[in-house]
Amino acid sequence: MKKFLPVFLILIFLTSCKAAKTSDSFSAMNTFMTVSVYAPAKKGKVLCKKIHSRIDELEAVLSTTLLESDVHKLNNKKQLDFPVNKDLLTLLDFSREINKQTFGAFNPALYPVIREWGFTTGNYKIPDSSRLETLLANTDFSKIIFDENKVLLEFGMELDFGAVGKGYACDQAIEILKSNGVQSALLYFGGNIQTLGTKPDGSLWRVGIKNPWNNDSAVSLKVESKAVVTSGGYERFFELDGKRYIHIFDPKTGRPSQNDLESVTIVCESGTYADALSTALFVMGKEKAVEWWKTHQNFDFVLLTKERALVYSCGLEKIIEPLIDFSYIERIDF
Ligand code: FAD
Ligand code: MG
Questions:
Q1: What is the pTM of this model?
Q2: Which residues are 25's β-sheet partners?
Q3: How far is it, in rounded angstroms, from Cα 126 to Cα 128?
């Protein structure tokens, strides 16, 4: 028996070191989140906890609804003093750049307009044109002054990082996992999916893009170490007199975005970039979105159009699989 004891202990040790799946699900940022980590069980548990508290920490800074958040304070007082929170500063920097690059289609300074329509408060209504014009006059993102010591908003300005916050949170979670030597993980933060490495057996992750016309998946993608982020108008909206008003807004008109797209999915390494672009390209509509991709080319996309077509960039050719009938399928080349 004595002879077998060390072998038995080694077996227990090896089993506890083996990458097992540890999952944690929780609600944060007004959405449902699931983290699945492949690591030795004890480590997996610790990392899931770490990620959950990092997400809570980010929400406490970025939320527009939590009274004590940095963004809430900024929106009320129009200024924040030293030291400006690092995550907020990173997102301000990033947003200024993407706002410029997308010719304003991505604009986290649109909050006064979005709130007027009742999003986040739930008091839905259709504002009149003159009210919208007044509010739109205070949505120029380039007018925000910020550095590590201060953030200054002009009178009437307010910020909302709803279009990019979950993507940033995914990137932060991936950083935690990578810096702890994890090679395999899957994050699901509402419409944001992010993968680290491959599945533990070395095969690619198979992720679905939601079917806007039904409650299943319309397309599947096989990916490795990629963010797959979708924006669409089919989940958050209100209806009045038979008309649907969605939560993604065209910053030029101050009205819910209305074009030929049902959803936009962006595939690239950065969750933050994918999140911002999924919103921006949704606002642009098919033709401008394709044009924008051709001039940038540092991501892939899947567009599901109102005429039930599937349009995708050539980089996805080998990993995309349609799961429903489309009116037509179009591959866009450089
Ligand atoms: P996305 O396309 O990624 O983003 C759309 C959202 O961005 C809109 O809902 C709007 O807020 C904003 N937006 C609309 N048009 C534009 C545009 N052109 N440019 C830039 N931004 C635009 N929701 C609540 O209802 N209550 C909450 O308390 C709440 N707390 C949150 C806290 C945090 C930290 C974050 C990041 C989000 C929170 N949300 C909350 C929002 C929610 O979780 C989603 O982020 C949001 O509803 C839309 O995400 P999406 O991925 O569906 O769409
Ligand atoms: Mg987005």
A1: 0.95
A2: 34
A3: 7
φ and ψ of 207, to 5 deg: -115, 150
Report the atom number in ligand 1 closest to the C-alpha of 230.
Answer: 51
107 C-beta closer than 6 A to ligand 1: yes
Take atom 6 of ligand 1 and give the residue whose Cα is closest.
163
pLDDT band at 140 (very low <50, low <70, confident <90, very high): very high
175 close to 132: Cβ distance less than 8 angstroms: no
State the first-to-last Cα distance of the chain, in angstroms, to the nearest integer: 69
The finding on whether 257 has its CB within 6 A of some atom of ligand 1 is: no
Using the Cα atoms of residue 323, residue 208, residue 226 and residue 262 in order, give the sign of their dihedral. Answer: positive
Here the tokens at position 146 are 């910020």
Q: Which of 26, 27, 29, 63 to mutate to test the pocket of ligand 1 (most atoms within 8 A of CB)?
A: 29
What is the per-residue pLDDT across 160-180, written as a single tens digit (0 to 9) for each? 999 999 999 999 999 999 999
Chain centroid to Cα 66, Å, comes to 20
DSSP E strands in the chain: the ranges are: 20-28, 31-39, 79-81, 145-147, 150-152, 185-189, 192-196, 205-210, 217-223, 227-232, 237-240, 243-246, 249-250, 255-256, 261-268, 300-305, 310-313, 320-322, 329-332
Instruction: Give φ, ψ of 209 to 5 degrees.
Output: -105, 130
